[in-house]
């Protein structure tokens, strides 16, 4: 048995993978390379100078009035991003809600998030 450490991917969601400052969000919103649409979600994507992808969310109270629903959306986005982060390029991604998600179930929301992340994956 050798002493080399295998390159097992870690599926953590670290602070370095989050967009934290208003300036970071503004960079993505002001000059996105791509805008990816689904029926309820939209993602702004731009290249970053970091070694890993980062995600941010702008989930407004106007589109999703209850905190429970807003937090559910955020948890779903973070979870799908966490799993797919090793396959993504070094991009900054900001998710927003296009229209009310009233009546959408968790599975459909998960499918929309995955569809957006699949378009961003490394070729």
What would a concise description of this structure say?
The chain has 123 residues and is of the alpha+beta class. The protein is 34% helix and 19% strand.
Describe this structure in words.
- The N and C termini lie far apart (35 Å).
- Strands 1-2-4-3 form a four-stranded mixed β-sheet, sandwiched between helices.
- The chain is globular, with a radius of gyration of 15 Å.
- It has 123 residues and is α+β, with helices and mostly antiparallel strands.
- It is built from three helices and four strands, in the order H-E-E-E-H-E-H.
What is the tally of beta strands?
4
Measured distance between first and last alpha carbons: 35 Å
The number of helical elements comes to 3
Name the helicity range: 25-40%
Give the overall pLDDT as a whole number. 88
Structural class: alpha+beta
Outline the low-pLDDT stretches. none
- Radius of gyration based on Cα positions: 15 Å
Widest beta sheet: strand line-up: 1-2-4-3
Instruction: State the order of secondary-structure elements, H for helix, E for strand.
Output: HEEEHEH
Largest sheet descriptor:
4 strands, mixed
Tell me, what's the shape? globular
Strand content: 15-25%
How are the SSEs ordered, and which strands pair?
Blueprint (H helix, E strand, L loop, with lengths): L21 H9 L3 E4 L3 E7 L6 E5 L8 H18 L6 E7 L8 H15 L3
Helix pairs in contact: 2-3
């Amino acid at each position: 048995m050798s002493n080399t450490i295998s390159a097992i991917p870690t599926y953590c969601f670290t602070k370095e993978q989050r967009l934290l400052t208003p300036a970071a969000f503004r960079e993505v919103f002001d000059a996105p390379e791509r805008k990816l649409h689904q029926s309820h979600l939209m993602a702004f994507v731009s290249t970053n100078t970091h070694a890993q992808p980062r995600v941010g969310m702008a989930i407004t109270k106007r589109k999703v009035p209850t905190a429970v629903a807003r937090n559910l959306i955020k948890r779903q986005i973070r979870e799908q991003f966490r799993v797919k982060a090793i396959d993504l390029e070094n991009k900054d991604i900001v998710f927003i809600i296009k229209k009310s998600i009233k009546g959408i179930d968790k599975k459909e929301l998960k499918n929309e998030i995955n569809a957006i992340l699949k378009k961003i994956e490394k070729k």
